[in-house]
Amino acid sequence: MALAPCVIMRIVHVTPGYWPRLGGEQVYARRLSEGLAARGHQVTVLTLRGEEAADWFPPQGWGLANPPRVIRFAENGAFHRLLKIGGARRLLGAVLPQDRMRMMNGGPLSARLFLELLRSKADIVAVLGWWASLLPVKVAMAKRLRKWRMVGIPMFHTEEAWSRDDVYAPLLDRCDAVIANTGYEKQFVEERVSDRTRVLVGGTGIDPHAFAERDGERIRSRYGLRRHPVVGYVGRLLPSKGVTVLVKAMRVVWQWNSEVRLVLAGPRASVGTPEGREVEQALARLTEAERTRVLLLGEFDEKDKASIFDSLDVFAMPSIGESFGIAYLEAWMCGKPVIGADVGSTPYVIRNGVDGLLVNPQDPRHIGEALVRLLRDPAERARLGGAGYTRTTSEFTWDRVIDRIEGVYKALGSPELLPVSVNAGRASV
Fold this sequence. Notes:
Shape: globular
Number of helices: 17
CATH superfamily of the largest domain: Glycogen Phosphorylase B
Largest sheet: 7 strands, parallel
Number of strands: 13
Order of helices and strands: EHEEHHHHEHEHEHEHEHEHHEHEHEEHHH
Strand content: 5-15%
CATH topology of the largest domain: Rossmann fold
Radius of gyration: 22 Å
Distance between the termini: 30 Å
Number of domains: 2
CATH architecture of the largest domain: 3-Layer(aba) Sandwich
């Protein structure tokens, strides 16, 4: 199945969620799919329909000359309902191997999605977001009956337990190529696959045009922040993203300057979940005076995102659950310094002391001291933020990312054209 250099490819992207659902994975899937479609390729997205109302009335690439075709499937929840029946989990555990149970429980289950894969006449099928462990299983099974090439874009959160599950090694080996977000994730994958599996770094990116009309002063005025130094976090409010430890770290900051405000912009975890309760408890432990210094924006209009980043003095996301961390790039596009966790893939994105600071994600005092260091030094903030901006515009735009991934897709028709897999060091993708 050799692909000529200028041939129009038929590409299928399989992903657990897709725009307008929020999240870094969804942004990645959308930008990659729309970017390849804009270059003339025939792109189909197979995804699951979530509970969000927006998922039931999805925009189909409004304004695009050649939008991706998006097919959304309802998830069959029968297996998860069965597990709630008394004794059913123990019975299934006695019948099914543990790895099979973990995959089934990881979901998502959709027979129609599998049938669509079998009907597909694609050249390339790429499966994204492997936390939904049954999706790469379905693609690998369908590949046995079809002639298309399989690409894995797992987006492993290497510090989280699910990424280290043994079920993934044979699935990675079934791929014709694996695309990692960072050099760290690449090394993580290479430790789990045979030498024949090609692992390459694709990276992730941003659209510079989305930041051209940002207006941080408008956000500051809207929320009464004009005279305050502002620390901000933008994303889903989850403990794994560093939200709870950031709230605790603010007490160190407020001891230095009680005028500093913390902005948390993004949706909360589902009500009643352990993640949601942990964040709520962290906020509840604040005193009444401290609580007045925290601004919860909740979900926001996408058109306000760049302005929210622009309104901050420091962006902090000491997350242990990142495959890359697009939010760091978004902050850099506004010339803001960033603070991230010195674990996993983040040191391959943030260059400590060059375009941001790395901290111990378990130590609120260390995080607080890093925040104070930047808040009290405008020159250092400008230096770090400026370096991040320069690097983002030169390395991390979507055009550059799509160039790399399109090159991998095309080369799969002639494997000898695949670039040599080279290990990347820290602060390199």
